[in-house]
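Journal club prep — side note

Before the paper discussion, L.F. wants everyone to see what a predicted structure for a comparable chain looks like in C-alpha cell form. Sequence:
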Amino acid sequence: MEKPLSWSTVVHAMGARPNFVKMAPIIRALAKRGSVRQVIVHSGQHYDLKLSDEILSDLDVPPPDRFLGVGSGTHGEQTGKALIGFERALMEEEPDLVVVAGDVNSTLACALAASKLGIRIAHVEAGLRSHDWTMPEEINRVLTDRLSDLLLTHSPEAGEHLLVEGIEADRIHFVGNTMIDSLRRLEPRARALAAWEARGLAARDYVLVTLHRPSNVDEPSRLEAIMDELAGLAERHPVLFPVHPRTRARLEAHDPARWSGVQLIEPVGYLEFLSLQLAAGAVLTDSGGIQEEASALGVPCYTLRRNTERPVTIERGTNLLLGDDPAAIGQIEPMAGEPVPCAIPLWDGRAAERIADIFEAVLAPASPVYESAVRG
C-alpha cells in the first residue's frame, strides 16, 4: 500500500509465539482506526508451523509483510541475524514508530536496530523484572526498556521498577495486558472448540503442561527427573503435555516408553491451547504468558521456576511458584469446582485501545505528547 502523505508508518516487530498474542490486538485496534500505515515484520525466531503460522491465523493477524528467517541458533546468532535483517527493513520502510513486545532475542535486536537509526520505540510489556540475571530474557527486557521511548506496562509493579531504574515518568504508560485482550476476544471460540473432549479428557480432571526454558530442559538429568515426576502425577490424573520443539529435541535422548503415562503431543495452535487451558484442572508451566492466562481464567497455575517476572499472578492471580526442585510437581492437584477469573487491574480486554490512543497522540504532529517525545 502506498503511504499517504498524512499517514505515519508503524512497524510491528514480532518473532515468537507470545509476541504474536501480545501484538495482535494492537494491530487490530490501529487497523480499525485507519490512522496509520502498519507494516508487520516477522523475525522468524519461532518458525514451527504450530508456533507461527497457525497461531497468526488463530489470532486473525494479517500475513507478515516481511519475513527475516532468523530461525534457531545461539543467542548471538539469533540476535545478530535479527539485527541485520530488521535494520534493512527499517531503512526501506522509514517508519515513525517501531513496536516491540516481550523479552525474546528478536525483541532486543529490533529495538537496537531502531535505536541506532533514531526511530522511536514502543515496548509492550515493559518493566517486568525477575531480578535473575542468569535468565537471557531478563537481559533482553532490561536493555529493551533502556532503549524505548514509550514503555507500556501491564501491571503496577512494572512501572515502579522503571522509576527505580531512572526511567522518566512521562515515558511510562500503564495500559494493561494485551495478552488478555486476545484471550477475551477468542475465549468464546475456544470454549466452543472443546479441545479437551477430542483428546478424551474430562473437564477439571487433567493437568496441562508446558515446559521449554533451558533451565528445565537442557540438562538431561534434570529433564529426566521432571519427566519422572510427571509420570508419577499421571498415575493420579491425566497429564497432557504439548511438547515445544526445543523440549522435543531434548527428549529424543531418552526412552519415551518410560513415561508412557504422560500424553506427549505435538505443539498446538493458540485457539486449541486456550481451549485446553479453559477446562484444565491445573496448569504446570515455566512460561510467563501462561501464568497470566491461567490467572485471567481462574485456573490454578504451578510454575516450575525459582522466580517470576510476573508477581501480580501470585499476588492477585492463581500462580504458585514451585521452585526448581522437580519433586515439587507432586504437590499439584486439579481444582475442585469451576474457576473464578481473577480481577487484575486493567486486564479488561481493552489494553490495545489504550495503546492505540497513545500511538495516535504521539504520531499527531500538533499534539503535546508528540512535541514532548521530540524534545526527549
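L.F.'s comment for the group: Residues 40 and 149 are 20 Å apart (CA to CA). Keep this in mind when we get to the figures.
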